Amino acid sequence: MPTALHTYVHTRRMNGIDVKTTVDLLRRYAFLERSAIPALAGWFLRAPAYETKLALGHLLWSHADRTDAIRRRLKELRGGHSEANIEPALARVGEELVHAPDVDSFVAGMRWLLEELAAAARDHLDLADRSANAGEVRLLRRLLPDLEDQLTALRAVGSKESPNARVWTKHLAALLAAAGGVSGLEPRVPHDGALPFASRFERVREMAFDERIAPSSLESYQSRMELPFEERRIAEMQIFFNEFYAAALVATILFDAWHADAPWEFFHDLSHHFWDEVRHAEFGVLRLKELGVEPSAVNLSLFDQSQDLPFLHRLCYLTLGLEVFYMPRKKPRVKRYEDAGDHRTQLFADVDWSDEGNHVQYGRRWVEHFLKDDARGVEDLQREIAAHLKEKQVHLPAGQLSPF
Ligand SMILES: [Fe+2]
Ligand SMILES: [Fe+2]
């Protein structure tokens, strides 16, 4: 059946899509893409299997990256304010994504969203004029394979079609139908307002893991450095796996800051930061498995002890406290693996070092942004953080910020 966009383009005999319609479409794509970010950050904390966490982490960045690309194209058009122009029925779809009844249903909902976005992109590409709409053609040709890759990755972690998941995706589809579909051009089917599940999502304070992963103190930096090469390498890869704590910290910031007065660039940087930490945990998974060891331990103390702080303090604590503290270890670690001829581990250590430099930059930029017109400066904030942590860090050696 031809879509309403197809009918519109052919009725007007433009053989392409005018600016007003293009802008409406791109705003709607950007809104749906962006809405997935806080939902994914919330479920990243709750999904118990680390494989699911990794997939949700990659997916979150893909949504942020596509949002950013669409926003850049909107700026080149007469694009207006992308969020101010979103109709309540579509806003409802974006707000509902997080409220899945369980993790399998949430993953099914994310797959449904990707399928809807991919179908809309295909339709848009089919109908675009290759010259007049060349900007969107280039954009959508780049976004479509990314949507399809993410769909493949999500199918690998959650192919179970539970009864809950079916009810959930039907509910989301009904909400989208009430908004005229992704394009907003389809006939609107009124929604009866009924919610299929009583439970609504709440952001948890704890990071969930399944029974394979147990809380552990992990080796301290000092004791790791005294181990023979092979044991030290395993211990260091367990530290990489433990970067789930940093990813979780950034996930809480993304989730809690979502409705704060902040520019898109903040959410974009934090989404990148989050994704990097997810990848660092993935480095641990990959290398441990290659070395014949299953990931089995986490130490979430740094995450747990910062959870009562405002998101600004959590951001400052991670980027200008912990990440600055760990930085001097990075270069010697790369050198050690290079000298040992272990170029595989060297690769991961090298990329981690590079990413961490960006995280400190993000921290400087955004902590200063949020402190604008504040009576306090960065050092005052750090004093407030130190005062908060003082009670909880009594077991740490003097001058140390981290137990590992
Ligand atoms: Fe990291
Ligand atoms: Fe980092």
Short description:
This protein is mainly α.
Integer average pLDDT: 95
pLDDT < 50 stretches: none
Number of domains: 2
How would you write the strand order of the largest sheet?
1-2
Q: What percent of residues adopt helix (DSSP H or I)? A: 55-70%
The separation of the N and C termini measures 59 Å
The DSSP helix count reads: 16
Say which CATH homologous superfamily of the largest domain is assigned. Ferritin, core subunit, four-helix bundle
For this structure, what is the CATH class of the largest domain?
Mainly Alpha
Q: Helix/strand-derived class?
A: mainly alpha
The CATH architecture name of the largest domain reads Up-down Bundle
- The H/E string reads HHHHHHHEHHHHEHHHHH
**β content, as a range?**
under 5%
Question: What is the oligomeric state here?
Answer: single chain
* CATH topology name of the largest domain: Ferritin
Largest sheet: 2 strands, parallel
Secondary structure: number of strands: 2
- Tell me, briefly, the overall form: elongated
